[in-house]
Amino acid sequence: MDRLKAMHSFVRVMHAGNFSTAARQLGVSRALVSRHIIDLERHLGFSLLSRSTRSVVPTDDAYPYLKFCERVFRELEAEQDFVRDRGKNADTLKVVAPKSFGTLNLSDAILDFAEAEPNFRISLSLEDFSFRPNDFIEKGYDIAICISSISDSALISRRMAALDWVLCATPEYVRRHGRPSRPAELKNHPCLVHLNLELNDRIWRFEREANRSSIKIDGPFRSNSVVVLRKAALRSLGLAILPRYAIVADLSSGSLIPLLQRYRLSPRPLSAVYPRPLARLPKIRTFVSWLARWFRENDPNRQVGA
Known about the structure:
five-stranded mixed beta sheet; Arc Repressor Mutant, subunit A; elongated; alpha/beta
C-alpha cells in the first residue's frame, strides 16, 4: 500500500462526501479509491467510513484522522516549497552563528571555505538564533552554528567540536578579594553572568570526581556577549566563566588566571544545525563535511581572532 496515496484518497472522500466525486477529482477509478480506503482501514485497525449505495458516513474516528492527514500534507507542502526555494539559489549558502564565536573563531573557517570552494557563494550572519524550523524558513538560513544541544526531530544537528570553558579572574581581583577554593565560596564573590547561555544562566555547575555542585551566583554585570564579558573580567569587575577560545592570549600573558582548577566545567558542544529537508542538498553536504574536517585540524579552543 502506498500510504500517502491512500491518505490522499481518504481526504478527498471526506471533502467530497462520496467516492465518485473524489475519484473524478483524483483522476482515478472509483474502485481504486475504494481499495485505498479499505487498505488504509486495514492498516489502521479501525473503520473510517460507513458505506451505503449512495453516500459515505464518517465514523467517530474519521475526523481526528482527517486532521492528522491534513496536517501531514501541509507539512509536506511546506517542506517542498522550502527545498524548491533553496534550489533557486543552489550555489548560495547562508550561515548564521553567535556573534562572539562567529567573530573570534568561525570567521576564519568561513573565509577558508570561501577560498577552497570558489564556486559557492557564502554569507555569514552573526546574531542570536532560536533554532526553530520555521525560523530557518522565515529568515532564509541554510545552516546555524550553535553552542548548545538541539533536540528537535525537524532539525539535524551534527557535532563539530567541544568548547572548553574556564572560570577566571584578573590577578588584581584575586589580590583584592581572595581566591575561591571551592564552588560554594562563589556566593561571596561578584560574578559576571552570561545571559541566555542556559535556561537558568545564574546557575554555575562544577564537577569533581563523582561530585557535582550547582551554585546560584549574582554580580554587578551581565551580558550575552563573550567579548563584553571578557572586557568586564579584565577590568576586575568579578569572576567570569568564559570560553577558552576567547581568552587563550589572556591566560598565556597572565592577564587572566584560571580558578578552581581541581573542578571541571563541562565542555559545550559546537554543532552545525540545519532543517532535515536540506540534508541531501550538495551545498549542505559539502559545507558540513568541510567544516567538520576544518575543526578536526584547527582546535577551536586554541583559536583567537585578531
